[in-house]
Design goal:
alpha+beta, Thiol Ester Dehydrase, Chain A, nine-stranded antiparallel β-sheet, 3 helices, about 15% helix
């Protein structure tokens, strides 16, 4: 199982000490002969039952799904290539080390070996171990808040990302903002990218909305 994407939408950003209740359900399942994609939706509420934020997590399961008798194999799906736009503004440059990935695994409980062992990742078809998706998203949120939101996390209203290519450990990459503009519905919005540089294939793409 791989983490393919994540979107969080805030009604209100809770404090770190605030008790929360969590509701989770499978919102959709999309399966074919090559993979299964599952969308899991979680709703977080405060003690009064008021909704605080909603998280949609997209999970990718490689492998064959059951086929009905007589069904034909579908054509191979083409993998779309998204590139970091020329003119995008770099807001952070970083390198995730193996020690960082293992520390994140210890904190999060996500010990998927493809994130903490080069050998396990290679045996799974990757060229080496790569960073956890949530760790990359947290880094994006942190830099976005301190670069565009004046250090105010309560201004963040929506942050959505799609994980397109692995962010391999020990390789340098950057976080970029593009198309920063006013949102017709209010506030500001921008496109987000993680990649080696402008014109290069994006490892992560997404969008953020925040209050003015």
């Amino acid at each position: 199982m791989l983490h393919a994407g994540n979107e969080v939408r805030f009604d209100r950003v809770p404090s770190t000490a605030e008790p929360l209740t969590l509701e989770a359900r499978v919102a959709s399942v999309d399966a074919n002969e090559r993979r299964t994609i599952v969308l899991v939706r979680t709703v977080h509420r405060d003690e009064s039952g008021s909704q605080l934020f909603t998280v949609d997590t997209t999970l990718f399961f490689p492998g064959a799904a059951p086929r009905e008798a007589g069904s034909k194999q579908k054509k191979t799906e083409k993998k779309d290539t998204v590139r970091v736009p020329f003119g995008a503004r770099e807001i952070h440059r970083f390198r995730v080390r193996l020690a960082d990935s293992r520390a994140y695994a210890a904190v999060s409980g996500d010990f998927n070996p493809v994130h903490i062992s080069h050998l396990a990742a290679r045996l799974s078809g990757f060229r080496g171990a790569f960073a956890h998706g949530y760790a990359i998203k947290a880094r994006i949120a942190h830099r976005l808040i301190h670069t565009a939101l004046g250090g105010e996390p309560t201004r963040l209203e929506r942050l959505a990302v799609r994980f397109r290519r692995p962010v391999y450990l020990e390789t340098e990459t950057g976080i970029y903002l593009a198309e920063e503009r006013d949102d017709p519905a209010g506030g500001r919005r921008a496109e987000l990218y993680v990649g080696p540089g402008p014109g290069e294939s994006a490892q992560v793409s997404g969008e953020a909305h925040w209050s003015a």
